[in-house]
Amino acid sequence: MKQAQLNKQLAVLATGILTFSGVLIETAMNVTFPDLIQQFGISTKAVQWVTTIYLLMISIMVPLSNDLIKRFSIRKLFMSANLLFLIGVVLNAIASTFGLLLLGRLLQGIGTGIALPLMFHIILTYYPLEKRGTMIGVGTLTTAIAPAIGPTYGGFLSSVFTWHAIYLCLIPVLLCSLVIGLRGIPEISVALTSKLDVPGIIGIGCFFTGSLLFLNQLTQPIGWIGLAFAMIGFGLFFYRVKTTKHPLVRLDVMKQKSFRIFLFGFLVCQFLLLGISFVLPNYVQFVLGKTSFIAGLMMLPGALVGALLAPVAGKLFDRRGPKYPILLGLSIACIGWLSLALFMQMAQVSLLVLGHVVFMIGNGLCYSNMMTMGMNQLAKEAYSDGNTIYNTLQQFSGAIATTIVAVILGFFQTIPNTSIVQGTTSGSIVSVLTLSLLLLSSLIASSYYFLRRKK
To answer: Where does the chain cross the membrane (predicted)?
Structure first.
């Protein structure tokens, strides 16, 4: 019994380390774009593919992993994800051409896209309901904190060494994850019960490819071609969901209102995390004149607070139920988030750090518990589909949030007769206030749910 419990913990730890590494470099590379443009002689639009191709592969692989989990053992999937990610990291550590850098990012996206849902699959399958809140809190710690730590990690290594060090330092971490996984994840055969939905894969691949192309080329004609491509892809995917016996993802879980409420809240938390990770560093550099390293460093206190609160919030969920941590967390997050809009008018780093810390306290209390509460609404046989929907939309919502705040900032920065400082200040405040509408909507929806539940 003790050995089985240890193996479960090692399995979550191994997949958690791998997932953390994948999400970490999602934002760690953002501070290196000026260096990449200069080194490879490429444009700003071209360098965006360092992030775009990574998010694209994750978005495609997460729903595909829903099928892979039914076909291959957890051990085989973990080894494949770790080795693909490791190969991609090694390629980027030695990359001397832009093409090799993109190839490495592609492989990392595939590895992360497998590891992310695999971690939550292990938690949902092998941990009882009364311990699930704590373990999902530990699991979501990786996806909630890593994006905030990424800019500090990338800024420090690229300023002291070169951007190659971002990947070089991950190699021993990934090897450690591989050793832990091989030690803790047993080989359990899986009975093949379904056929691979190839048209569904093509449809969802087209949908995400077209959507990301549209988001990255919003003002260009090719962006609208991407949107049409995305709509065709979604139509094919939805048709397969409705007509085939073994679709890539079953969307029946979306019929449950309670599941939708907490899925929405979870995605709002992700929206805010990625949105502020873009807004604050830009504000600090353009308005306050600080370096990229300082801009990334100021995100660290909030990230550490969130890291400490994630497992604590899960234990609170298990002991006190969902209402207290979710509603308290959303309320505190609203206070912190709106204070950021106020503090941006004062232009002081210390106040911005304070506002971010308060927001991360609230976010840390409710973020993972939103996923726990949503998944608890489902029957056991629907866990895999619910897990896939959560993790797929989580990645995609991050891309959307970044695009929204980038468009708002770009609009205000290019207003005639407006300085870059004035434009960035106005754009940052409007971005925060715009996303605050989503946060308030989530608070209202969650409050309404618990009120009706009480009655």
So the answer is: 49-69, 81-103, 109-127, 134-153, 165-184, 196-215, 221-241, 261-280, 292-312, 324-343, 349-367, 396-415, 427-451
**Are residues 284 and 373 both part of a single domain?**
yes
Residue 190 lies in a domain: no
3-class DSSP assignment, residue 45 = helix
What's the CA gap between 60 and 98, in Å, rounded? 23
**pLDDT score of 211:** 80
Helix axis angle, 98-126 to 49-71, nearest 10°: 40
Give yes or no for residue 7 having a pLDDT over 90.
Answer: no
Q: Distance (Å, rounded) from C-alpha 328 to C-alpha 320?
A: 12
Q: How far apart are CA 427 and CA 448, in angstroms?
A: 32
Domain assignment of residue 240, given as a range: 195-245
Encoded tokens for 440: 């308030």
Same domain, 296 and 406: yes
pLDDT, mean of residues 8-26: 82
3-state secondary structure of 323: helix
Q: Is the pLDDT of residue 190 over 70?
A: no
Between 69-83, 240-254, 334-348, the lowest mean confidence (pLDDT) is in 240-254
CB 148 within 8 A of CB 303: yes
For residues 388-402, average pLDDT: 78
* Count of domains forming the chain: 3
Residue pair 95/104 in contact (Cβ under 8 Å)? The answer is yes
| CATH number of the structural domain spanning residue 261 | 1.20.1250.20
- 287 and 370 within one domain: yes
Q: pTM of the entire structure?
A: 0.76
